[in-house]
């Protein structure tokens, strides 16, 4: 069920500059996609082709399976919102007018505009009275939050954002990233977001498209990119520090990747482990010995369902534990383990 699909898309600007070369990508509804790459790598061009601000030279882009060449400008505006490199508000318009600006342009009915404005101001937890104030009557932080909801306010399912937080200080940036991610999830929007900041991409995206010289060199989840950078360029973009963090010690964890792990360094009781798993909504427990050698997996469901088995895993749980988020590799391994009768299965030979 692809919402947006690039099929062999290239863009050659007048004068012969190949800005984008044979890009093939598909995004699903509800995804948060980041394009990342160095300056001039074709991020903005790729994004602008999605709503026909820039036309591809070759290939095509489909939205909901439909070639966007067959959609007119109004149809595209209804589906796709666009936020350029600033999220500034219109100073001569009230907050309400700012929030409903796009809806107004799209001639959405008044009642709907009204409810949208209220819904949006509620979402950022500002009082409704503020709807009738002007931007200058709000603090800078409040204005920025309104800027973010405005981008998500219209009925468009897809929002394109080109380095919207690039010019902001790190603290403001961080809180607006949280806000955009939260709103995106709550409102079920699909966001295509351009950035050159790896931290930003890792934080926001559920999949990242890494661009270099017009080509997509890797398209994958943040976890997989950290775990398996496609080439030297990607490694450099990720940076040594993050790579080291992602792979704390290859010899310790063998083939199981712990890039999403939170390491609990002190010994924890089983109860404490379960509490933490619930709190952090982690569903898989990796058990290691005191040297950090991986001993096995236990998932919270099988713990809950099989309290009787706990005595047999009790010893193991006295040692250090790793918590990891679900991923496909773990899930497959777990499924194998579970098929073997919900017993604790060591994955590393004790002899080694
Ligand atoms: P990014 O967003 O990754 O910095 P762009 O997509 O803006 O990259 O640009 C990709 C390449 O295409 C760059 O070399 C840029 O100079 C060139 N380019 C962008 N827009 C135009 C244009 N309108 N005309 C000619 N060349 C362009
Ligand atoms: Mg750009």
**Main beta sheet, described?**
6 strands, mixed
Overall pLDDT confidence: 76
Report strand %.
15-25%
Shape: globular
- Give me the strand/helix succession: EEEHEEHEHHHHEHEHEEHHHHEHEEHHEH
By secondary-structure content and strand pairing, the structural class works out as alpha/beta
Helix content: 25-40%
CATH topology of the largest domain: Rossmann fold
Task: Tell me the strand order in the biggest sheet.
Answer: 6-7-8-3-9-10
Q: What is the number of independent domains?
A: 2
What ligands can be seen in this structure?
A: adenosine-5'-diphosphate, magnesium ion
Q: Termini distance?
A: 45 Å
What can you tell me about this protein's structure?
The protein is α/β, with parallel strands linked by helices. The protein folds into two domains: 240 residues, 3-Layer(aba) Sandwich (Rossmann fold), CATH 3.40.50.300; 90 residues, no CATH class. The chain is 39% helix and 23% strand. It contains 16 helices and 14 strands. Strands 6-7-8-3-9-10 form a six-stranded mixed beta sheet, with helices on both faces. It has a four-stranded antiparallel beta sheet with strand order 2-1-4-5, covered by helices on one side. The protein has a four-stranded antiparallel beta sheet with strand order 11-14-12-13. α5 packs across α6 and α6 runs parallel beside α7. The chain is globular, with a radius of gyration of 24 Å. The C terminus is likely disordered. Bound molecules: adenosine-5'-diphosphate and magnesium ion. Adenosine-5'-diphosphate binds next to α1.
